[in-house]
Amino acid sequence: MIQQRANMDWMLKDLATSVPQTRQVVVLSADGLRMAQWGADTDAADRIAAACAGLQSLAAAVATEFPQGDGRMRLVVIEMSGGFFYLMAAGAGAYLAVLADEDVDAGLMGQRMRDLVARIGEHLSSPPRSDEQAG
Predict the structure, then answer these.
(1) CATH number, domain containing residue 42
(2) I want to staple 23 with a disulfide (CB 3.0 to 4.6 A). Which of 71, 99, 111, 112 is the partner?
(3) What is the distance in angstroms between the CA of the first residue and the CA of the last residue of the chain?
(4) Rg (Cα) of the chain, in Å, rounded?
(5) Which helix (H) or strand (E) holds 56?
(6) How many domains in the chain?
(7) Is residue 132 part of a domain?
(8) Are 16 and 36 in contact (CB under 8 A)?
(9) Nearest of 101, 72, 67 to residue 88 by alpha carbon
(10) For the whole model, what pTM was predicted?
(11) What is the pLDDT of residue 10?
(12) Residue 58, Cβ neighbours under 10 Å: how many?
């Protein structure tokens, strides 16, 4: 587990340094637990992960309005005063979240996030927690 986290930290740093203006990168489980982070302290990463759990659930609910789709959320982008927020599905039960400044290259960010997910999607998967793990 420690080796996997060290590998993931390196990969998140690679994403952040390859896209100028990236502030924070967080990998989280579908239920909002932080799995890895770059550029944020633990408390900030935990807050982002918890907020993302609600956001991905909301996005999935909206996705069901597209009858030709499968109802799964792939990517959410929110532009706000000061920057952008990206949330991308990244394997079964896992998500990749990024906060970036407002002058980030949005196309480059999306491309690098997709590349990262494609390269390490199986490592980003989060198996469902059992009742024993949840409590």
Answers:
(1) 3.30.450.30
(2) 99
(3) 20
(4) 14
(5) helix 42-63
(6) 1
(7) no
(8) no
(9) 72
(10) 0.83
(11) 81
(12) 12
